[in-house]
Write a structure and sequence with these properties.
The complex is a heterotrimer of chains A (about 300), B (about 325) and C (about 500).
Chain A lengths: L24 H6 L1 H24 L35 H7 L1 H29 L1 H16 L2 H11 L4 H28 L2 H9 L3 H37 L11 H8 L8 H25 L5
Chain B lengths: L1 H28 L4 H6 L5 H11 L5 H13 L5 E2 L4 E2 H36 L4 H15 L2 H15 L15 H35 L2 H8 L4 H30 L2 H7 L4 H10 L3 H29 L1 H5 L5
Antiparallel strand pairs in B: 1-2
Chain C lengths: L1 H14 L8 E5 L21 H4 L4 E3 L5 E3 L2 E6 L5 E6 L13 H12 L8 H4 L2 E8 L2 E6 L6 H5 L25 E5 L5 E6 L12 E5 L4 H9 L5 E5 L13 E16 L9 H9 L3 H9 L4 E3 L21 H10 L6 E7 L6 H11 L5 E7 L5 H4 L6 E6 L4 H9 L13 H11 L4 H18 L2 E14 L2 E2 L15 E2 L1
Parallel strand pairs in C: 1-10, 1-11, 14-15
Antiparallel strand pairs in C: 2-3, 4-5, 5-7, 6-7, 8-9, 9-10, 11-17, 12-16, 12-17, 13-17, 18-19
Classes of the chains: A mainly alpha (about 300), B mainly alpha (about 325), C alpha+beta (about 500).
């Protein structure tokens, strides 16, 4: 404290309000209704996707795997509202069914990844010293491990069940979260209210829960939502490599990868699942952004 | 300081060893080996046995790994059974091509992403800011080959100013390769820009609200200085992490873009090597990837320490 | 930065959007491995370049009738076990040396060498001895009579290489063909230059450049953008992309490439011929062909590997028969239908779609198919010929070759393990029959027999679709092996 710190002058406001520092009085006053509207749109879309995934078997749709040799790559028509794909299957039906595998696996993977990431990152930041280094190197190993190799090993030994894919994806996507959590935690740990808390005699656990987590919440949740987007995107790359969902299961990533050769002939089999993917990702991110900013949800 | 660097170096060596062993064992555990990949579908048992004997593949796995490490200490990265060439010779032009691609994509994406992230983060609620954010999010959900197809249509077919796919050899000169870099680099830059910009935006937005920024403004500090000396250094650290991971990914993880544009980079080489069970090549590439991540990691940490002296001082740790 | 962009664009202007400089043919191809060699007898031969650099003794015309290439006449003895071949005079290799019987004998010896074990040996292994009678005459002795030896010698790999070239031909190929190898780079761009002394006439292009483009969609883009002039095969469903006939020419070539779903007869339930037949007749082959290959993308087949352009082809009638299939299954002890698992992979085109389409079609007969995906790099070693049911993929072969190479009980690559001495006897009989009409009858009888008993479901032969820019002329709509490269011109 004896050296002058030009970057961050002593801040008298912090100790008064340690739990909710991201308090923007002005913003709350100027645009409350607009933000709540976005929030409810986001929530509605996410809820819509989840409900669809759960209840699509009850909808009066054509069978998603039924083929029609006479109606291949056709555009929108009375019989097929979104046209047909390259095996004559109804695109509408496949699109509505397609979220089940994607959403289940992606949500599971990203939640696990977040858990792993927070554990590793926070532990590294708190511990410091050699444990920090070891944990971060383990993190680097996980990040640099050729995911293709891991996926192929999993596939050849355990098979291609969704659980295996979920676990593998979680391990693959935890490292960036861990790095971010560590960085953000370090940033918080240096702040005065944490120093004050330590002086008060608070233990590490209490510091993590009461001081660190609430303050890193915003950035971390944004990153988790980002990783969720990457994971959904990854399904089409996995299918590109032949390691994704097994055909003929309707799944957005598989549909997108399969339709790529025929984009310029008929783009609907590609656009429909992409719109679903995009809407879900947008909705999740909008939901997360709002709640991360401390708004009532 | 020297203690820190030494410790980090020792740890890194340990990590390399673990990685090499894991990779070697992993490839050995996969069905098939380099000889089945080389001889292909109609390989007879005798031919396979002959091939394995010729290439030392009939030795136990750990012995093969040991031989490879011994070679590595002599500066020899091993031999690719499938391609019939030393690993170093195969990797050198690809590394150069990957750096070219990553470099161009980085130049296109990172400065712009940080600048736009800063601008939109400070005016977080404005329509422009939110639209840019949403557009970036949409851009992120587009699979690479969709972005690629759009770019190709616009820049190779309608206005033919760029080559659609790479048709030069991997070891041709940079001049020959340069026209082919643009489409894949732009495709990658779109994704990278979206990711980094959103991270920066969220971070700046969170930092701008902190009372110390207002306190500085109230003291009469000029807005530009507030941004430069107060907001930016506090907001950059999380984004630095994102930049590091993304930059590392640009060098090694761009398989889809490379296939779609036929660009001879490291991503494709790595995937092909795994398909060919070319163990020496796979290990060399994996260790390269690890080195890239470790370096990026190290540089990111160094930059963060520079930016935030409190981290440097270790204040707040038990 | 702007300067770099401008320089880059300027350099790109030379390559991008260019419709092909006069005298250079740019052919997009896909290198399956990284180990391409120019040794035509090696398993990793660099196709189709070997046919630009080397020639065969005997070629085939559009109707697959043998025609002279490096050989001018061929005469069998009475029981078809000895053939005397006269070679063309005054043919030179690219290095100036003369082609003579010593080269021919050397080449054939390499093809049939059991130690080297070339894939060509499966075709020409019936030759036991090759000897040079004089510089322009070669005598071949066969293990048994084979009326179709000329057709077998027309195999696209039965190429003539110089005497003693075993160690050098892989990287430094010297042949008699229309093009000389200038730069061999299988993973990048390979360059060949015209051989002005070619005995069929100097080529009409100065150079052939062959960039390796690993992804079919990327190659399609390259052709659309004018970066290449020719794509040897495109997906039939992508034909619409090249509909502008002022810029592109599309050819449809009936060919003999085929896929199959093989059932191993040493595994239950496929040991029962009734089950096997039920599995095969439950499919609607025409619909399957249209779905998997695209409308007009193939010619349906009734489980015969012999393709529609082959003189020995049997055109049976095999409509979808759901009731018949159910009946056979019930008789075999499966009144409630049967559950089977078919292994496939995207290692080659259409293999996954075939199972997807088949799966849907046979549901009505109570056949419940589980599709199991395997990784492409492990397919041929770990799944093919090992799992109970799997997808197969073969290139075009003449009847005599394919029936013996794949369906004979002693064939090394008999994927189903079906050992049927009666079939073998029919094959032996057919191949040694001198009279052409009788021989044809016998080969047709073999195919009918297959339809009743085989363990391979062969639904179609593929119609290849080839796309090229409109300024490529002289390329006949024939399969690649029959293409006369010297007749192609650009511009």
């Amino acid at each position: 404290m004896s050296t002058v710190d030009p970057v961050d002058p002593v801040d008298p406001v912090d100790p008064v309000d340690p739990v909710d520092p991201v308090d923007d009085i002005d913003a709350r006053a100027t645009a409350p209704r607009r933000r709540r509207r976005w929030l409810s749109v986001g929530a509605a879309v996410v809820a819509g996707h989840v409900l669809l995934a759960l209840f699509v078997p009850l909808l009066p749709l054509q069978a998603p795997t039924a083929q029609d040799a006479t109606a291949v790559l056709q555009g929108s028509s009375g019989a097929h509202w979104l046209g047909t794909d390259d095996l004559g299957r109804d695109v509408l039906s496949r699109t509505l069914w397609g979220g089940r595998p994607s959403i289940g696996i992606a949500f599971g993977a990203v939640l696990l990844a977040a858990l792993l990431g927070v554990l590793i990152g926070a532990a590294a930041a708190l511990a410091g010293g050699w444990l920090d280094d070891v944990l971060m190197r383990v993190n680097d190993v996980l990040l640099a491990l050729p995911s293709l190799l891991v996926l192929m090993l999993m596939a050849s030994f355990v098979g291609r069940q969704p659980v295996v894919l979920t676990l593998t994806l979680a391990v693959m996507y935890a490292p960036p979260i861990a790095r971010l959590v560590r960085g953000a935690t370090l940033g918080v740990l240096g702040r005065d209210f944490v120093v004050a808390a330590r002086l008060r005699g608070a233990g590490s656990g209490e510091i993590v829960v009461r001081e660190v987590l609430p303050n890193i919440r915003g950035v971390v949740i944004t990153e988790v939502a980002m990783q969720f987007s990457w994971i959904l995107l990854a399904f089409s790359s996995l299918s590109f490599l032949g390691l994704g969902t097994t055909p003929p299961t309707p799944e957005w990533g598989l549909m997108v990868a399969g339709a790529r050769t025929y984009i310029t002939i008929n783009a609907l089999p590609l656009v429909a699942p992409m719109v679903m993917l995009a809407s879900l990702v947008l909705a999740v991110n909008s939901l997360i952004d709002r709640s991360a900013l401390g708004e009532p949800s | 300081m020297t203690g820190y660097v030494l410790r980090r170096a020792a740890l890194s060596v340990g990590v390399f060893v673990v990685m090499a062993v894991l990779t070697y064992l992993g490839v050995a555990a996969l069905p098939g080996d380099a000889c089945t990949a080389l001889l292909g579908r109609f390989a007879t048992t005798e031919k396979l046995a002959q091939c394995r004997a010729d290439n030392g593949l009939d030795a136990p796995v750990l012995q093969q790994l040991g031989d490879w490490v011994a070679g590595l200490l002599r500066g020899d990265l091993g031999y690719s059974v499938k391609r019939g060439a030393p690993v170093g010779e195969l990797m050198a032009p690809r590394i150069r091509n990957a750096m070219l691609l990553a470099g161009v994509a980085s130049l296109l994406a990172f400065p712009a992403a940080i600048a736009v992230g800063l601008a939109t983060g400070r005016r977080e609620q404005s329509k422009v800011s939110r639209t840019v954010d949403t557009a970036a999010l949409v851009a992120m959900t587009l699979p690479e080959f969709v972005t690629a197809s759009v770019l190709w249509l616009v820049l190779s077919v309608w206005l033919p100013i760029l080559p659609a796919v790479t048709v030069v050899s991997s070891d041709d000169s940079i001049i020959d390769l340069l026209p082919n870099v643009w489409l894949p680099a732009i495709t990658l830059a779109v994704l990278v820009f979206a990711h980094v910009m959103r991270s920066m935006r969220a971070s700046v937005s969170a930092t701008s609200r902190r009372p110390f920024a207002d306190a500085a403004r109230l003291r009469g500090v000029a807005e530009a200085t507030v941004v430069r000396r107060h907001i930016l250094p506090a907001a950059l650290p999380p984004t630095v992490n994102v930049v590091a991971v993304t930059a590392a990914w640009l060098l090694t993880g761009t398989f889809v873009v490379e296939v779609v544009f036929n660009y001879p980079g490291l991503g494709r080489l790595a995937v092909d090597a795994i398909a060919d069970r070319d163990t020496d090549l796979i290990v060399a590439l994996t260790l390269l990837g690890l080195a890239v991540y470790i370096t990026a990691s190290f540089l990111a940490d160094a930059v963060i320490r520079l930016l935030d002296p409190r981290v440097r001082a270790g204040v707040g740790r038990s | 930065m702007a300067a770099v962009l401008i320089v880059g664009a300027a350099l790109a202007g030379c390559g991008g959007g260019d419709s092909g400089t006069k005298g250079v043919l740019r052919v997009a191809y896909f290198a399956a491995s990284g180990a391409e060699t120019m040794d035509p007898y090696d398993g990793n031969r660099f196709w189709p370049t070997i046919n630009m650099v080397f020639d065969r003794l005997i070629g085939v015309d559009k109707d697959f009738t043998p025609i002279p290439e490096l050989a001018t006449t061929w005469e069998p003895n009475a029981d078809l076990t000895e053939w005397t071949i006269t070679l063309r005079d005054e043919v030179t290799f690219h290095d100036g040396s003369t082609f003579d019987s010593a080269d021919a004998v050397y080449s054939i010896d390499r093809m049939i060498d059991p130690e080297f074990d070339s894939p060509v040996r499966a075709v020409l292994g019936i030759i036991t001895k090759a000897e040079a009678i004089d510089p322009l005459t070669v005598k071949l002795t066969l293990a048994s009579g084979e009326a179709d030896l000329p057709v077998l010698l027309a195999d696209y790999r039965a190429l003539m290489t110089p005497e003693g070239s075993q160690d050098t031909v892989g990287t430094n190929p010297i042949g008699t063909g229309p093009f000389k190898m200038e730069k061999l780079d299988a993973q990048g761009t390979t360059v060949l230059v015209a051989n002005e002394q070619y005995f069929f006439g100097a080529p009409k292009v100065a150079r052939i450049e062959m960039p390796n483009i690993a992804d079919a969609a990327a190659a399609t883009q390259a052709l659309s953008a004018g970066q290449v002039d020719l794509m040897l095969t495109i997906d039939a469903k992508s034909e619409a992309l090249f509909g502008d006939s002022s810029k592109f020419t599309v050819q449809r070539i009936t060919s003999g490439d085929w896929n199959a779903i093989d059932f191993r007869v040493d595994q239950k339930p496929y040991d029962d011929p009734k089950v096997r037949k039920a599995l095969r007749i439950a499919a609607d082959r025409q619909a399957l062909t249209d779905l998997v290959l695209g409308p007009g993308g193939g010619v349906p087949a009734c489980d015969t590997p012999v393709w529609s352009g082959d003189p020995y082809r049997w055109d049976g009638d095999c409509p979808q028969d759901i009731e018949g299939a159910k009946q056979l299954l019930a008789e075999a002890g499966y009144p409630d239908g049967i559950d089977i698992e078919i292994f496939t992979s995207d290692v080659e085109e259409h293999m996954v779609e075939l199972v997807e389409a088949y799966q849907e079609q046979v549901k009505a007969a109570g056949i419940r198919v589980t599709l199991t995906m395997t990784d492409a790099s492990a397919y041929w070693d770990n799944v093919w010929m090992l799992e109970p049911a799997f997808v197969d993929s073969w290139g075009q072969r003449p009847a005599a070759q394919v029936l013996n190479e794949v369906f004979r009980s002693t064939a090394t690559w008999n994927p189903t393990g079906l050992a049927d001495p009666e079939l073998d006897a029919m094959l032996d009989d057919a191949r040694s029959t001198l009279d052409a009409a009788q021989r044809t009858e016998k080969y047709r009888a073999v195919q009918e027999y297959l339809f009743e008993n085989t363990a391979s479901f062969v639904p179609y032969h593929k119609t290849l679709v080839r796309a090229m820019s409109a300024n490529v002329k002289g390329l006949e709509p024939v399969v690649i092996d029959a293409v006369r490269w010297e007749k192609i011109e650009v511009g």
